[in-house]
Amino acid sequence: MAEFVSIQEDKFQNKTSYQNTKNLNLDFQSEWIIEALFNYRRIVVMPDRDELLFDMQVTAWCTDWPHLNQGQIILMIDGRSVTLSPCENWHDCETHDGKTTYKESCYYIISKDLLKRICDSKSFGMKLYGGNGDAEISNVNAIVVYSKLFYNVVYDSTAYTDVVANALNEFTRSGADLSNFSKISLDGSGANGGCMGVLLLMICMASAAIGGICALV
């Protein structure tokens, strides 16, 4: 199984980068979006730069770009809203059989504390806004699980270990199909009890092997 989070180090720049190796495909109902993908990315440059980014890529059927730069993402965490503003917009388009798809991507700057709030949320919602419309994300359980896995790998290998074990169990049975994230219980229940201890041992061994940072495989 491929690593869930890639870790790249550049000793010449004192830089370490962490990024999900697979994007999460978001579910939604929208007249203008075909596909929306996102992942987390953390960039650390010693001694004083540490950025956590929320990457978004949207593909749309329309007569114009999604214009993510004119919109925002609003998170609803336990009844309280958090607004994220887009940074650095990229565009591309393709035409097949007379139909044009418009692809646009940007990133949103978040914090470790906000990521932790998402992980620990009792209720969570997300809505994407662009210049040409909006879309409410429906597979929010998958986003929370995805967030917990990233937090475990990048920040604290002792956090959310039940969810991590359950996710690894799903990956083992499904061939790392990220659509199964929606089926993973947030509290880790439903994981195969016979496999959980072995999976947690694998996590600990991987963590020790790279100095406390765990790369999930």
Task: Explain what this protein looks like in three dimensions.
The protein has 217 residues and is an alpha+beta fold. It has one domain (5-209). Helices cover 25% and strands 39% of the residues. It has 4 helices and 11 strands, in the order E-E-E-E-E-E-E-E-E-H-E-E-H-H-H. The chain has helices at 112-120, 140-154, 161-174, 193-209, and strands at 5-10, 15-20, 24-25, 33-45, 49-61, 72-77, 80-84, 86-96, 99-110, 124-130, 133-136. Strands 1, 2, 3, 4, 5, 8 and 9 form a 7-stranded antiparallel sheet that branches. Strands 7-6-10-11 form a 4-stranded antiparallel sheet, with helices on one face. Helix 1 (112-120) crosses helix 2 (140-154), helix 2 (140-154) crosses helix 3 (161-174) and helix 3 (161-174) crosses helix 4. The longest helix is centred in the C-terminal third of the chain and has 17 residues, at 193-209. The termini are close together. Residues 189-217 have low confidence and may be disordered.
